[in-house]
């Protein structure tokens, strides 16, 4: 007498031999949601927001004024909220990578000669052979390669809002029928790099022109911030941002009104409309100021158009601050704030004592009023009013070394002590606490290996490299204690996550958890290192949801996800790949970007995870291998399924008209020129013959939505499949006879939840145990 009784389902444990698995574990468990310890299918994702592209790596929300806005990029982008208490600007800071790129071909209809031309915009260029004895196919666009590249660059370049053009073009070599042109642009995300309208054919040379597509992406290596007063209505994350902080300027010109012998040094800083002060300009030194303290301050470098340095919004006004040493100071004296000056605006009413920057010079208002610079009721004089006494000067300057963030920073993380952490190559970078625009040079910390990812637990910074794991602890970036823990190379930047228990990341040996106890391989009981090769850990990106780690991967032999459930300490997997993930702060819903929809399978959507109540993935489960002491034959089996669940799904499909709506769309899209409003209104003679299959094979059914009225049961003896049955009730059924085996396995697949599986050598044993 023998019996197999499986009444709980938990996960997989590849490390264990298939006949040594603990209760609740299986050899395989694909797309199975075992949170309730039953065997249930994951619902398909519910499409929420359709996107224009089909390749993404980052997804998150920017919320301001109680409005939630989606942000998504095709590059790896990190984000963090401002630490400023009650930040009236509701700022969010982001660091990104992955500029836009395009590559395509110009296909030639005939072999070009030196008299054939190509027109870029309105300028025509010849195809010219080059080099003595050159093959006629080795030709260039334009009179020479340099001219060609310059003109093609001009035709396709894009600017990125940083007031800098970052487009490069490479002209490839010709073959018998094509030339490859590559363009890489770090321009505004969403812009078309090259369009078919850019090129026109001359002398019928071109058969087709295809180069580049419109793509969504992030500017390469730029540090940006969203604020609630930047809104193009509707808000657009590709346009509505600013660059935190400010650059440093060139040295001002300081001219004393009369001779003297007191040493002074001057510099100035830019201040954005958000009060973000940049580092000091170059310093100007003078030794001829008189004791009345009046000088001319000229040649303040014109502020760049970015960083919000020229734009006033509401009461937020950009400024310039002038600093100098004290009147009795020497070369090493502290700098003190002399005055703040705003950029002149003819619509502003000034009062005596106001300072303004006009052109590049500093002026003081002596008579209040309003009007244009050359007229109106006000009067401005050039100079600086500085009291003789040192005590009249303001507080000392502490921002001289407050540099803007370096280009190409990544791994942005928020520390609870009010500063940001980021990395570049093997360097750690830190912002000034509560001043996220300032990244002092003195705070940079180099490591001996390349930084892959960063995480924070408590107040400890975990730095994961391609070799060692480091921790940094301390209250301030200038007083951090470094500790090197162990050699565990981090395999994926996007898979690093912060959880309640610490910082989790994938390594060659398994998923590691770093916390106050050190480093722990939290999957050591589940996986051997070789078991993890199927999950392409270097491609993985992860998210923490419902006390589970979801890691999505893609490789040459497949793609999918792995779920590590910390509540039940189980691991399951799935076969659907999702490009980007985010658990929304606004509603706690797990959302992903996925190219998977019944209605539009090629469209990428922001979708709600496991949310479609009428559309399911099919699970797959294979039991442990049960080895018996002697040859036996199982004669009867019973599978307890939640058949009421199937009827509930049917009722929901009828209630929300899912099938009807899908089939109406399908019919209307493939029928004759005069399609009926509804499928049920169709008349045979209204449509083109053969435009629809007679039995509706190209229309949607319950099965095409993953809703099947049965589960598939299989049983194996000594690794040979012996029996397959579609089970649609909870009744016992007979198994085939005429053979015996020692090693038995059960496999089920489907959508209807399975609560229990029993296999026995007799009916009595099945009923009575």
Structure, described:
The chain has a seven-stranded mixed sheet with strand order 23-22-25-26-27-28-29, with no helix packed on it. Strands 4, 49, 50, 52, 53 and 55 form a six-stranded antiparallel sheet that branches. Strands 1-56-51-54 form a four-stranded antiparallel sheet. It is mostly beta strands and 769 residues long. The protein is built from four helices and 56 strands. A hairpin with a 2-residue loop joins strand 39 (502-507) and strand 40 (510-515).
Summarize the entry for a quick read.
The chain is mainly beta. Helix content is 6%, strand content 39%.
* Order of strands, widest sheet: 23-22-25-26-27-28-29
- Which descriptor suits the 3D outline? elongated
Average predicted local confidence, pLDDT? 77
Total number of helices: 4
Q: Which sheet architecture does the biggest sheet show? A: 7 strands, mixed
Which oligomeric state applies?
A: single chain
Strand tally: 56
Salient structural properties:
769 residues, 6-stranded antiparallel β-sheet, 56 strands, mainly beta
Layout of helices and strands:
Elements: E1 3-6, E2 11-12, E3 25-26, E4 28-30, E5 32-33, E6 40-41, E7 46-50, E8 58-64, E9 67-73, E10 78-81, E11 92-95, E12 100-108, E13 117-120, E14 123-129, E15 139-141, H1 145-156, E16 167-174, E17 178-185, E18 199-201, E19 206-210, E20 223-226, E21 253-256, E22 262-271, E23 284-289, E24 295-298, E25 319-325, E26 335-343, E27 355-358, E28 361-367, E29 379-382, E30 410-414, E31 420-424, E32 427-430, E33 445-446, E34 451-457, E35 460-465, E36 468-473, E37 481-487, E38 497-499, E39 502-507, E40 510-515, E41 518-521, E42 541-545, E43 548-555, E44 558-565, E45 570-574, E46 580-583, E47 590-594, E48 605-608, E49 619-622, E50 626-632, E51 636-641, H2 643-656, H3 658-670, E52 711-717, E53 720-727, E54 733-734, E55 741-750, E56 754-760, H4 763-768
Parallel strand pairs: 2-3, 26-27
Antiparallel strand pairs: 1-56, 4-49, 5-6, 7-48, 8-9, 10-11, 11-20, 12-17, 12-19, 13-14, 13-18, 14-15, 16-17, 21-24, 22-23, 22-25, 25-26, 27-28, 28-29, 30-31, 31-32, 32-33, 34-35, 35-36, 36-37, 38-39, 39-40, 40-41, 42-43, 43-44, 44-45, 46-47, 47-48, 49-55, 50-55, 51-54, 51-56, 52-53, 52-55
